[in-house]
Design brief:
By secondary structure, this protein is of the alpha/beta class. It folds into three domains: 39-204 and 340-450, 3-Layer(aba) Sandwich (Rossmann fold); 214-332, no CATH class; 478-565. The two termini are 51 Å apart.
Amino acid sequence: MKDDKQSEIEKLKAEIERLKKELKKRKKYGLVWEDKPEEVVEMCKEKLPVLKEVKEKEIITDKDKPVNLLIEGDNYHALSVLNYTHDGKIDVIYIDPPYNTGKKKEWKFNDHWVDENDAYKHSKWIAFMGKRLKLAKDLLKDTGLIFVSIDDNEVAQLKLLLDQIFGEKNKIGIFTVETPNQTADVNKTKNSDFLLIYGRTQQAKFKLPLKKQIARCTTGKENQTQPVIEFPKGLKVIGVKDGIYKDTRKTGGNEDIFLIKGPIIVKNGRLATPIKLKARWANPNDIKKFIKKFISKSKEPIFNKFGKELLDLFLQGDRFQPQMVKRGFDVPYTILLGFTQKGGDLLKNILHKETLKYPKHPSYIKYLLSISTNKNSIILDYMAGSGTTGHAVLELNKEDGGNRQFILCTNNENNICTDVCYPRIKKVIEGYKNLKGKWIEGLGGNLKYFRTDFVDYDKPTDKNKIKLTKQATEMLCVKEGTFEKVMDNERFKIFKNSDHYTGIIWDQTAIPAFKKAIKDIKGKFSVYVFSLGDETFDDEFKDVKQKVNLSPIPEAILRVYRRIFR
């Protein structure tokens, strides 16, 4: 009897194992691709990335303001470093990755251009994107958001990849982005791209309630066939005095645009009534003339903040075609303009030379940031290209007095970092003359320029740990945001910002001297002490424990790198 029972147990165990194997064989829903090893990833098994500052490219206009970062190097290495310095600190990520169209010299994989005839074109792109998105996810706060621009070549793969990495439940939405001035393929009649938005977790908030969007296209009772553009009550306007502006049915002889109801009333600089315009295949210039005639007497855009941005965006196109919808059905206006000749023209005006033809316009990125960030947010673009995201952050800070900080990462393929991205940010911060010789005032701000570098680290030997620690100064300053040098000698260093201090102690025997040096300094200290193990040195600092926060190095760095490069 006992043998029979034991036999039944063995049979049950065997059946459980069989079912486990069967489950493993079953296909799962999701994205499957042939992973392609990448040289920049493989090299991290023997060399660890660090940051090295290019001191002569530093720009400081206000020491009390946050320091923005530009990192030149492969973004896989930059993201690896940021996983130590900015783990869980980023509020918003925006990237405009290679669209993988197969066009000549669009992007490289293992130092080779990927073309349309490459049999592994999609697998290489997914492997490239996947490795970086995984690193990027860990940088976001739980409330953080990621925006990814893409076109139809990889939108399906990207959606599944983001579902896999961020979770389908954390998908915020997919926006259509019109590209009216981009050269269209006549065979595909392509005139739009896409913007995919995901949250780090379900705590992520997207500040754009659908019923409160600034502009909507509807076919309401006022008109059953022609859409209506609505600018809501309370919207701030500029360049116009308070007053009542009468209705009209004409716009420079064009009968296709007119107010549905009037008059327009402005009180305390804001619309006291909504503006409703009927537009039928209307030229944006006519819309602009019409609104300016009754709301603004200046040459500047009439709306600021969201309204100004949205109006500017759709006025950048050659023509504006409102979306047609079913009778009485109210649809939020989610079509944005971003990839236009206007972005290229602006860049040429700043740099005085042709660079990128169709970069995103800062007002497009600024609009996204205005609905997703607060005044103290940290914004990352690890495919920065011409630096549009940094430009947008500086503009937004100037407009609302914010202290947002940007981190830009880009390689230097075709000198994009040294000849385009950095000069653009420098000119936008400090001011520049445009092509007409007019001086454009600088937006202000601070910038630190870094390049990725490497420390040989094939084995966790004491010698290698010492090498990594000696090369970690810039990383620690970036982590703490402390760049102003207070004290520097062979045994320890001290840096500060307006908020706190950072101490780096290379020699444990220098701890008493370090404590003496900080005795009369008021403020909190983050202190990093070299250790071959993982000692915390609590006993040595117990008399100043209220003043310091201790961390051993390089173990804290190695712990992150082991997770990434395992």
